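INTERNAL AUDIT FORM
Audit reference: QA-55
Scope: verify that the stored structure record matches its stored sequence.
Auditor: D.O.
Record contents follow.
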Amino acid sequence: MDAPTLFSVKDKVVLITGGAKGIGRMISEGFVRNGAKVYITSRDASACATACTELNKLGPGSAHYIAADFYKESEVKRLCDELAAKEKKLHVLVNNSGSNWGEGYDEYPESAWVRVLTLNLHRVFTVTQGVTPLLEEAQEDGNPGRVINIGSVDGLRVPALGTFAYSASKAGLHHLSRVLAHHLGQRNITYV
């Protein structure tokens, strides 16, 4: 089996939220090493710049960034507008950005719910909605636009730690993925 031919991402345009650090950084590297043009986004512009410098040394793909603070809806709109100004199509969106908050049940603050649910669940919808026109433009010869959501086992089982908002957000993300797969599948966009 010739994996690079079978699963080629050469010359594909990819957006990875939270693509500068951790799991997102590893995902970014995989796409760049296999020839994709990758845009990473995070609120930490410095981390994005550093990651792009490192990734561009790996090639054969390339890495670029658009810093955006997803806690602000206006920043998501700006990200989508900037990406649309740079690219005519988007082949893959990886919704990886995430936040967590651990604290005891009796002390768990309201602010944790707002912060974690906004980034882990609400912004997945907002970003996906914002780039849907670019995903539709990427469709060619039976090859649909693709959306990949990074969930968590904590959305499927009860975690040992007091991560109430995180667990709920990931469970919600798993179901949101199914709902969007149904809706966007009708627009020839696959959802994982």
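Auditor finding: record pair retrieved intact. The chain has a mean pLDDT of 93.
Action required: none
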